[in-house]
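seq as requested:
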Amino acid sequence: MKLKVNRKNIEVFEGALVRHALLRYFVWKGWDVRFIDHLTVYDRWGHEIDLDAPASQHEQIKFKLPQTT
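struct tokens:
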């Protein structure tokens, strides 16, 4: 199944969750996957979505890294 994460095309297995799509993206970027649980994730319309939502319901997802002070 193909979808976009922050404008990057990725492919994940059928039945994947949003969490799995983010994991794939983070591995591709070489980032620490421990930050995935601290992200705020949005669908293509800007609605916040849960990490455990089915990725098949979302063609595009975006996330914002948490702000540090």
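The longest strand covers residues 60-64.
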